[in-house]
Structures are given as structure tokens and as C-alpha cells.
UniProtKB/TrEMBL annotation:
One of its GO terms (biological process) is double-strand break repair. It is found in: Cytoplasm. One of its GO terms (cellular component) is cytoplasm. This is DNA replication and repair protein RecF. Residues 2-344 form the RecF/RecN/SMC N-terminal domain. SUPFAM superfamilies: P-loop containing nucleoside triphosphate hydrolases (SSF52540). The RecF protein is involved in DNA metabolism; it is required for DNA replication and normal SOS inducibility. RecF binds preferentially to single-stranded, linear DNA. It also seems to bind ATP.
Amino acid sequence: MYLKQIILTDFRNYQKQKLDFSPAVNVLIGKNAQGKTNLLEAIFVLAMAKSHRTSKDKELIRFKQEAARLEGTINRRLGDLKLELILSKKGKIAKVNHLERPKLSEYIGQLNVILFAPEDLALVKGAPQERRRFIDMEFSQIDPLYLHDLSQYKQVLRQRNKYLKALQLKQANDLVYLDILTEQLANLGGKVIAKRLIYLKRLETYAKDLHAQITQGKEQLTLRYKTNLKDLGTQTENDLATNLLAKFQQLRQKELSQGTSLAGPHRDDLSFYLNDNNVQTYGSQGQQRTTALSVKLAEIELMHEQTGEYPVLLLDDVLSELDGQRQTHLLKTIQDKVQTFLTTPGLNDIAQQLIKEPKIFHVNNGKISTDDENTLQVEIFYPHKDEKDESTKN
């Protein structure tokens, strides 16, 4: 799988832009605030129908415009595929081969992407919600049913939390309705946890091998799913739902007192261990970064295993955060395997030696030019005249 072409209309600072890409490595070189990350974000949004940088779609629409449009041509094993996503203040319109998909679960997964940015190096040490976001984002792309169950779970969770808050404030008193919501949430939660356990086990297999290669066999990486349910390895989806329902009953008085749901996949976490030592607690910064790198690279293999296609890899200025050994391992792993988009202020000696025939895009002051001297104009909107005047002086 690779992205052949993208067309952006009124997305971020792009007024109208059409770009054709290499199926191998595409390198975007330029100083900060030139639009490199905006292009990677556009590819991510085209795939996931949401941004990794903001939860507000209106921030993706060019200033004073009503809507943003992204169009992409994807090459897959069975032929080319056309994707179109329109973002407006009224909502989203998603199309596959010009046919509108009313459910985003029918759209997401057509283009699979893995984003690796400097903040992802904090995957190990960061907050639990970052790891949950990581899990859900990747598994939703490889399994539409997981995305559906997760969406349903979040919807019922919002309803249940709202009703718990009403009970806490004495604005409601129907505990039977709470029981109905609790049973629905437990059933959906059991489905989500069951799939997480399956895919995390497969992810661990690939991550363990990659980590052993990076550390020359000195460290063994394992992943452990953290939840307040017990005996996860022996439980079926129905067992997990029953277990979760019992946990809700156990926590009922506490939930009524606090007005929120205190158990379920929305509160679970992921732990990383090296030679049975918790990396989050006892690992060095180097070990934590190597663990994050191993896990992110393992996603590539998991997606290929589950979908039969390699994903598109987005590397947003990540080379500058890795030492020479980790840069080498990253670039060797992706070489001749996945289409890659790499943003960087400039390629260092290691990258130049390891990347074979990249397509180079120079991003500077609102213009993108390739090394073959074909210049592609990027129309940048300047909200203030002085900004445009200033940029022309450089």
C-alpha cells in the first residue's frame, strides 16, 4: 500500500496543493513552521478522519473558509483506490471511490498509517491515556469491528457517566436504568478488552524480536495489559464481560459517590518490561526510547500480518531525537518495505548513506521544490499583510 497522490484544498495553510509521491521514501526538508508537519497531518487525517494534533476540525480549515477537502489516490494490491474527506463546521463527509460512507468505521482502514513523532518516544514514560490512544488508533485500522465496538463503548460510557452524575446530584433515582447501562457497558467492554489482548500479544511478538536486534540480545521485551480484572489469559469475551459486570457491582457505591465509571477499558493501561523489570519505573531514558522504537516498528509488521498490506509510515522530525544506532536501525527496518514520509531540517550522514534514492521535497517560505527541479507552488494564506511582506524579504 502506498499513497500515490494527494490534493489539499483549504487545509491548514494550503489553499490548493497537488503532490505526487514516490512509493519508497519521501523526504520533506525545511526549517520549522514551513508547512512540513501540516502535510504529514493531512495524510494522517485522510487516513483516520481526524487529526493527531487537535480534536477540533475547525482548526484544520483555512482561515475564513467554510470547509477543507482532502483527496488521495491509494495504490493497493487489488488496484487504485480514491479517498475523499471533506471537513466542515457541519461535520465530515467521507467517500471511497466517490461513494459516500455514512459510517466512519467503513472509511477508516482504507489507508493505513503509522505516525512516529518525537512525542511518541514518551510512549513508555507518558500518561496512560497516551498508551490507550496508541492502542486504539492502531487496532482500529486493522479491525473495523474493534473500531465499531470501541465507538459503541464510548457512547454508552458517556451515557452512563452522565446518568451517574445525575444520580450523584439527586437529579435522577432510577437504578434500573443504571443497571441497563451497566450491562451494556460490560458487554462492550468485554469485546474491546478481548481484542486488545489478542492484538497486543501479536504486537509483543514482533516488538520482542526487534528489541533483541537493537540490543544485540541483551534485553528481552514483554508487554503486559494492566486492568483491575484478574486471570485475563484464561478468559473469553463473555468471561471478561461477566467479570467487568461484577466489578461494576463491587464499585457501585463508589461510582454513585463520585459520579463516574471507575472500571473498564477506558481506565486500563499498558506496561513494558525488560528482563522482567518495569521500564517505566526502572528503565533508563535510552531503554525507554529503544522500547518505544521497538513497539512503533512492530506496528508495521502487525498491520501487514492483519491486512496483507504494509502501512504508510509518517516520521515527523524523529531522526533528530534518536542517536546514531537507533537511527540506523530505524532506517534499515523501513528500507525497501514501506512508503515513508520523513520531515527533517536536513539529512545527516547516516540518513544519506541508508536511504536509497529518496524523493526530496524542499519546503521553504510557502514553496515546495523537488530535486528534479520541478517546482510545485504551495499557496500560503497570510492572515496579515505584514506576514507576507516579511516572508518575501528572505
